[in-house]
Design brief:
By secondary structure, the chain is α+β, with helices and mostly antiparallel strands. 43% of the residues lie in helices and 24% in strands. Strands 1-2-3-6-5-4 form a six-stranded antiparallel barrel. A hairpin with a 2-residue loop joins strand 2 and strand 3.
Amino acid sequence: MSDVSKGRLLRSFPEDLIKLCLLPAAKASVTSRGIRFKGIYYLCGLAIREQWLEKARAKGTYQVDISYDPRDMSQIYLRNIGDAPYEVCYLTDWQEKYGGKYLDEILYVQKAEKRVKQGYAERKLEARVNLSAKVEEIVTEAAELAKQTAFPTSK
């Protein structure tokens, strides 16, 4: 007797759903700027239709379940959302520099940008300290000159 006549059939699922289930899963934060994952911002039709960004602005950020392909961070996939098994989220316009990049590449670029920012902040602080010292020096010098200047007495 065959499996079909015994009532045993293989179950089939859509290929894209199988791929989604094989991708790594994580949590992302819904913020007023978009859906943030690893410092990258995404948007999707569902978030816009349901005004997630406005809700996050009013009530604070909240978490959603996602899957992602670390080989291409151009999009992430919201999981367990309503009736659909997933919703595709795309990079926001201002995050397009991360399009088509591996997750490791993006993390490397983010660390490099952070180091540059820290170096800039240190130079800015040093410039402020130097300016403060120079101002103090000028004030002290002016006070000394004022003491040396003789004022005529009034009649």
